[in-house]
Structure formats: structure tokens, C-alpha cells
Amino acid sequence: HCYNKKKIFAKPLKFLFEFEPELKNKTSIEQMIMIDDREDNFKFNPKNGIVIKEYAPDPSNVENLRADDTELLKIMEQLENDIIYN
């Protein structure tokens, strides 16, 4: 869900709690991260955002459309390393 007012597009994390109220009992905004290729989506939670490279697939290669989309895998590996070594 996006915030869209006066041509400002963002994804405030508080919206998650509005749409999924049970999350309040399980986590907090401080424990969340957002991963997106658009930094402006982090406008309301800049410390929670990780910017990744935009995915621009080769439309002529439909069979392997997602094979080169590795940004999330890189972030997952980095987070796992941070947990293990910190």
C-alpha cells in the first residue's frame, strides 16, 4: 500500500499495522526493513530502507526472466552474514 498525496509516493511502514493489526503484537517498525529500487518509497521510514538495483529484465528471454534478478538474494546473504558475524 502506498501513500499518495500531492504527488508524493511512499510506502509508510505504519500502513502495515493498519491493514494487519495483529502485527502490533509481533513486531515494531524499528525491527522492519523495506527493500525497494526507489528511495522515495522510504520517505517516511528512511532508516528502514535498503535500496537495490532496479530490475530491468530482457523481455526477449521469457524462459529465464527471473534468473538474473539476484538483488534480493544478495541482501539476504548480507543480512545472514551480519547476524552470524555480529
Summarize the structure.
This protein is an alpha+beta fold. It has helices at about 15-20, 70-85, and strands at about 5, 10, 35, 50.
Biggest sheet: strand arrangement = 1-2
Main β-sheet: number of strands, strand sense, barrel status? 2 strands, antiparallel
Question: What's the β-strand tally?
Answer: 4
Low-confidence stretches: none
Nearest-integer average pLDDT: 85
Count of the separate structural domains: 1
Q: What proportion of the residues form beta strands (DSSP E)?
A: 5-15%
Proportion of helical residues: 10-25%
Taken from the alpha-carbon principal axes, the silhouette is globular
Contiguous helical run count = 2
**First-last Cα distance:** 33 Å
Structural class computed from helices and strand pairing: alpha+beta
What is the CA-atom radius of gyration, in angstroms?
A: 16 Å
Task: Spell out the helices and strands N to C.
Answer: EEHEEH
